[in-house]
UniProtKB/TrEMBL annotation:
Keywords: Cytoplasm, Methyltransferase, Nucleus, S-adenosyl-L-methionine, Transferase. It comes from Actinidia chinensis var. chinensis (Chinese soft-hair kiwi). GO terms for cellular component: cytoplasm; nucleus. Its EC number is 2.1.1.85. This is protein-histidine N-methyltransferase.
Amino acid sequence: MAVKQPGLEQYKTQLGLGFLDAPQKPILPPPPCLEILPSEVSSSVKYTVEPVDLGGLTLLKGRVSTREVFNLSNCDLIPGKYEGGLKLWEGSLDLVKTLQKEVQNEQLLLPGKRVLELGCGHGLPGIFTGFEGAAVIHFQDFNAEVLRCLTIPNVNANLLKKSQTLATDAREWNIDAEFRFFAGDWSEVHQILPCTHTNVKDQNCSPVLDQSVGYDIILMAETVYSVSALPHLYELIKKCLNRPNGVLYMAAKKHYFGVGGGSRRFLSVVEKDGKLSFIRYISIRQW
């Protein structure tokens, strides 16, 4: 398995994240796995939007209050309750920039592809693939509240037809793609994701696509911070990624202080198992 690191000749100084000093293991059982419909977008939480410039590409990112959504203040992680989805992590922006560069260099072809963004939060990488012609874009986050209060509003802000003020149906977005949103823990969410090897009889992916099973592209940023969660994440990827041509894009730190996770630990899990040799490459942002 080749590891590709596009345009990343120098790594940033490795920094610790204070929120990762929290306990590794969830103190609560995971929430139920649910599909969140666009019509379930929250109207009770204040959502503000601002532009973010990504090297000539401008996307809109939302801002909501963690206190208002989860009754939490000055906290980016409560294992088993809130997994940091309301914060825009640096790796997410790096991932968009990498995707943009690969599209420009014709190293990545997105038209007609099935895309899954794991731990999506703001969902900017997935939104970018919609602009570039992906046919299916599915977003997953641990918390349903993140999808209702932030991810769906972000898709609205970036893709809404000018005649609309709020979308409650995917047909009101100005891109002809399938956008769907799924909440749940990585150990269980494969049960409701349509384009997995376990759900082939139930998949509702676009009929214009070929009959191969799985997502063509999986995106994830800052998802490998917890050692205890890595096995579940890796097993989910194996259940979801198209074979033999699936591509996984990951943006992560080499190491996350306080929990011991990071890109190095994740890659060691992949290499030890040896079952993902069908991946063409993994693109990593690590610092």
